[in-house]
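Deliverable D5.2: sample structural annotation.
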Amino acid sequence: MNLSVRISTIPLMHFHRTGHLALRNIVLALLLANAALAVTNTQVVVVPVANMYSRPSDKSDVVSQAIYGSNVKLLVASGEWSRIQTDDHYKGWIPSRHLRVILSGNGYAASGAIVQVDSLFANVYNEPDVTRHKPVVTIPFGARLESVTEKSEAANQATANQARANHATANQAVAKESHEGWIQVYLPDRRNAWIQASDVVADPKPMSIPESIELGKRFLGLPYLWGGRSSFGFDCSGFTQMLVRARGINMPRDADQQAAWSGVAPVERKDLQPGDLLFFGASAKSIVHTGMYIGDGQFIQDTTNGRPVVQISRLDDDPWTKLLVACRRIKVK
């Protein structure tokens, strides 16, 4: 064998071997990632509100929505579109770019230090200042975020204690790092950001019925939105679902499903109490609308009747008194 040939083939052989190993590592990494996805099958919504469509096309009808930071179950991945299931077991198609994969754990903001948006909507910023740049994202009521600030609270307390011991110098250092009125959060798209503390609640607790009714009144005048399930716009059943969810109860999505749900019990109209659910339609088998009774013959609803907004109506008024076909009370666990 020619020596020059033997020498010249050595680098080539090394290149082929190195390239093969690199390719093998890439394939292995992809397989591991796919295996992790297969196990968890969980993705998180990374847009303020993601429309869920009946078919993989934004020309089809909107059937529901998933809000920012929501964990959803991936059912089908088909290129630019993904079919998902939300935690109320509702299914629909959304653009795949509106999702991020969760490779480990129970999902985004599912445990640990959490804050939840309590304002009707909230701006999130790159830094703890509203004047320097536009918001990174504006997210709706109820969106949950992982809190970096809350996680480090214990560490900050230890630092503060040490600072007090070291007096002026250390106190100045702590003051420099302080961002009063702000909470640092870790977003589902894997960025750190800041939100004003007054826009969120930490460790949210289930509301009482009177508290949920007062919550509903905060949305008075909000325009109706078919398929809506966020403070950017609700439909009738999305609105009542939100009010019941605020009480710590995960109720089905659609009005007819809510009326048939095992978590409610029938109640007579004469026995209505605040917090009871009202269902309207041509008959008990053809329910098309819902609202929540708030007492004194009144109920709060999101409707297109008259003005298409969240409003308070009287149950004895037309057309509601003629269309009421079912009343339900949430079962006490």
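Annotation notes: The longest helix spans residues 3-40. The mean pLDDT is 87.
The annotation will be released with the project's public dataset once the embargo ends.
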